[in-house]
Amino acid sequence: MKAEARTDVVIVGAGPAALFAVFQLGLYGLRCTLIDSLDRAGGQCAVLYPDKPIYDIPALPAVDGLELTARLLAQAAPFDPAFLFSKTVTSIDPCGDEGFVTTMRDGATIASRVVVIATGLGTFVPADGGEPSLTAGPAGEWPLQRQSGGLSVDTERFETSRPGIFAIGDACFYPGKVRLILSAFHEAALMTQAVRRLCTPGGRTGLNYTTSSSVTKNKIVNQSVIKE
Amino acid sequence: MKAEARTDVVIVGAGPAALFAVFQLGLYGLRCTLIDSLDRAGGQCAVLYPDKPIYDIPALPAVDGLELTARLLAQAAPFDPAFLFSKTVTSIDPCGDEGFVTTMRDGATIASRVVVIATGLGTFVPADGGEPSLTAGPAGEWPLQRQSGGLSVDTERFETSRPGIFAIGDACFYPGKVRLILSAFHEAALMTQAVRRLCTPGGRTGLNYTTSSSVTKNKIVNQSVIKE
């Protein structure tokens, strides 16, 4: 199967988990394309409580969904994510050793080494009854192992039962899982460590601290809306 | 052993992990006393990089250690934490069914149902050679199971090998552990779920979402520096 486009990581969803994943993956040089069925970034935050204060985002004593989204977009901006809005993913097909091809309802396709499912719960409502299969099932019927309404993942890599497909945020489940945005940020960071090892097997293995890496710092400060 | 004071939760450390734990535990009505060997809150952030920008705190594209500390203090303020600064913990003694008594170098003692170790790595440097024992060992020699320089915890409760003693932030270790502040926030949130079940066995078990709980919202908005 040949795809029209290619990127490093396809992220299904464009909510807080997905946006922070763009930043984390970007720190290791990985480019992302985000696909969301909504017409804008922010997921549940932007649609369900755009102007309702949230009090439990660490170090932001009170922030509404729109401001949180704007802040995460600004943080991700230096890594130049591509967004495909108002698109529904209909299948994720394995593609030899090269990862996956993700197909959308309008027939558009994009290839990537890994796929990260970062949808809210909404995407996982029962779909229209096609045969449940990873290669042909509509969204919500991918035969990935599930538990308590989420995709089962381990707490080291946040990888689903299908190697190369990861899940973070409200889409995933593991013992102790709490559906808080702050947990999605942690899940994005640990998923990133697994994905960077997968994508750069011969590369450097050190953790990239933004406070001490001058390469990263320069990239963030010079390419972005962030001013010191 | 009789202690001079009593609180719900003793937190060893007063850095970002500890400060966010105050907020999380406070959402469930639990009061905290924080003990730190430094003379102020903020831990490594306040001492090592007070004015150096950090770029990977989610939704804060650039923030220095002092501002991050101030933001976390403001978020914790409605829950009225007690701070004991310039104090070193010398022992944590079991106290029957009622938890633990924490003793400081100057002889001061405080009892609590649970203890959360949220020190940075610094506290765990080799101490002065007393017999390693939970009841008498100086800090750094508690016979809690350790791995890779941290206290071994599970990823559901973030509890150490000693039931009732938890560890979060740079002090803890589990497979996949990355020493990022954002992970400490997640660890604080999941630890809180375990601690509230321990402290209120007959109480409500629902998760407290700050966006939807009016009791919590009123408490945060009315008692604090946070203005809508």
Features:
228 residues; homodimer; 12 strands; three-stranded mixed sheet; alpha/beta; seven-stranded mixed sheet; 26% helix
Q: Can you walk through the features of this model?
A:
The structure is a homodimer of 228-residue chains. The first copy, chain A, is an alpha/beta fold and 228 residues long. The first copy, chain A, has helices at 16-27, 43-48, 65-76, 181-199, 214-223; strands spanning 5-12, 32-35, 53-54, 63-64, 82-84, 89-94, 100-104, 109-117, 146-147, 150-152, 165-167, 172-173. In chain A, the strands form three sheets. In chain A, strands 1, 2, 5, 6, 7, 8 and 11 form a seven-stranded mixed sheet that branches. Chain A has a three-stranded mixed sheet with strand order 9-10-12, with no helix packed on it. Chain A has a two-stranded antiparallel ribbon with strand order 3-4. In chain A, strand 9 and strand 10 (150-152) form a beta hairpin. In chain A, helix 1 (16-27) packs parallel to helix 3 (65-76) and helix 1 packs parallel to helix 4. The longest helix of chain A has 19 residues, at 181-199. At the A-B interface, helix 1, strand 3, helix 3, helix 4 and helix 5 of A face helix 1, strand 3, helix 3, helix 4 and helix 5 of B.
**DSSP summary, beta strand count of chain A:** 12
- Discrete helix count of chain A: 5
Terminal-residue CA separation of chain A:
46 Å
Fraction of residues in H or I helices of chain A: 25-40%
Poorly predicted regions of chain A are: 124-140
Oligomeric state of the chains in view: homodimer
Biggest beta sheet attributes of chain A? 7 strands, mixed
The overall pLDDT average of chain A reads: 85
- Category by helix and strand content of chain A: alpha/beta
Strand content of chain A: 15-25%
SSE succession of chain A: EHEHEEHEEEEEEEEHH
